[in-house]
Amino acid sequence: MPGIGVVESQRIHFNEPLHLRSGGVLPSYELAVETYGTLNAAKSNAILVCHALSGHHHLAGHYADQPNNIGWWDNIIGPGRPLDTDKFFIVGLNNPGGCHGSTGPSSINPATGKPWGADFPMVAVVDWVNAQARLADFFGIDQWAAVMGGSLGGMQALRWSITYPERVRNALVIASAPKLSAQNIAFNDVARQAILTDPDFHGGHYYEFGTRPVRGLRLARMLGHITYLSNDQMGEKFGRELRNNAFSFDFDVEFEVESYLRYQGDKFAGYFDANTYLLMTKALDYFDPARLDDGDLVRTMARTHTDTNFLVASFTTDWRFSPARSREIVAALLANGRKVSYAEIDLNYGHDSFLMEDAHYHGLVGAFLGNIKL
Question: How far is Cα 130 from Cα 97, in angstroms, rounded to an integer?
Answer without folding.
Answer: 14
